[in-house]
Amino acid sequence: MTENFDAFPLDLIQQFVNENGFLEPPVTLQDLKQPTAQLVQRLYFSFIQEFGFSESLLMIPFDILGEIESHEIYKEMISILSLQAACQHLFSKLIGEGSFGVMDLVNPNPKKTQKFVSILQNFWLFCNSQYPHVEKIKGEVDKLVRDRADCEAKIEDYIKKINQSKSKAVEEKAEEEMLERDIDVLKEELGKLVPRQSELNEDKLEVKNELESQRNAIAALNDNLKKKETERDNLQGMFKGAATLQKLESELQDIRDSSEVMEKRKVDFKNQLELLSR
């Protein structure tokens, strides 16, 4: 697909690379017309760093070096192979082909280098033009991420509340079952107490009737007592009248006696007067 791609002129590539600080010191047109291995390796590495590759790409793990005999010979080659793999992966994503090889790093062809750099430049310009949209989308994504975090927090809170409600419901269910068992026990005890209650009700009725009878008897006794008191009062009045009458009869008898004495004395006085008159 690189054959169908129109490369940028070398002067535009030079201007782009220098203005955006891809290489230090700045690259010249002669450098681009006759690129060296060191130049293209630094240039490609600057581009792939711009596209998100790590600086540790060219670093070789010590454990790998330890496993290779005479690793000093392969040390530089391993870095180049890592850079070539990263560039090949990037070009495969951008143009759908993997024609980028190790020779493009160690013995670069000016035309191929111009096309490959133009592809990277074109992609960089496209990314740069899309950056505001990307930032906007990133902001929206960040907002969605925050909203999702808020929703997850709310969901977690709701789950806790649901679990608490379930736990409370289980406790209430257990308490309800316990109360139902207590109610059954109380109902059984109440059933045992019903016959005793009937007996007590009968005893209560008998006691009530007896109490009513006693009240009637007491009322009759109270009436009889009142009659007796009336008779007593009457008798006491009669006794008092009899004593007065006896006293009056005694006084009357005294008066009679006195009257007889006076009558006798009158007769005596009359007799004496008649005697005196004679």
Kindly describe this structure.
This protein has 278 residues and is mostly helical. The protein has a domain of 130 residues: Ncd80 complex, Nuf2 subunit (Actin-binding Protein, T-fimbrin, domain 1, Orthogonal Bundle). It has seven helices and no strands. It is rod-shaped, with a radius of gyration of 71 Å.
Indicate the CATH class of the domain at 2-131. Mainly Alpha
Q: Helix proportion of residues, in percent?
A: over 70%
Q: In what range is the share of β-strand residues?
A: under 5%
Q: How does the major sheet shape up? A: none
Q: What is the CATH T-level topology of the domain at 2-131? A: Actin-binding Protein, T-fimbrin, domain 1
Task: Summarize it.
The protein is mainly α. It has helices at residues 10-19, 29-33, 37-50, 62-67, 71-95, 103-106, 110-277.
Note the topology.
Blueprint: H1 10-19, H2 29-33, H3 37-50, H4 62-67, H5 71-95, H6 103-106, H7 110-277
Helix pairs in contact: 3-5, 3-7
Describe this protein with a few key phrases.
mainly alpha; Actin-binding Protein, T-fimbrin, domain 1; 7 helices; 83% helix; single chain; 278 residues
